[in-house]
Design a protein that fits this description.
By secondary structure, this protein is an alpha+beta fold. 45% of the residues lie in helices and 17% in strands. The protein is built from five helices and seven strands, in the order H-H-E-E-H-H-H-E-E-E-E-E. A five-stranded antiparallel β-sheet has the order 1-2-5-4-3. It is elongated. It starts with 16 loop residues before the first helix and ends in an 8-residue tail after the last strand.
Length: 174
Amino acid sequence: EKLKCVVDESNADPRFDRNRVRGALLPLIEKEFNPSVVRALARLAENAREESAALDRLAADAVAQAVVFGRDGRARITRAALKELPGAIRARVLDHVLRRTAPGARFDRAPLAALNEKIARGAGTSHLSLPGGVRATVAYDEVTLAAGKGGAARVSGAEGHGPVTIPGPGTYDI
């Protein structure tokens, strides 16, 4: 049985950027600059997919070789192993480890950049609270990532400031 064609009226609505790009910007670029712009963008997208897949494979290899996942849920990796990786692979390794440490947590570029900065800084010990209740400890030559028991405690009711995250295990009565 054939499916009936459904027309989504939102695809013609110029309030949406995707429609203005498709209906106005691409035709303008084709006419004024490059009649093959759509094919060029498709090639660029395919190249990006292939390169991203290659970087993901290299990152998976690095995780398998350098990251130790303990029974306690902690992930450990030497700072030297992370520092020797190219930035794009290091970011994917950290993303993989964070997502495994705190499934369901959302990690965007900001927490990865903050963790990367602490790793690059040098000697000493520093801590960083990350989404999903993950606590990162960068101590001399080792990086440890661990989810707190039950994640981070949330304290609500801070006047005008919203919830406050207190990293650590358990809950807190304040």
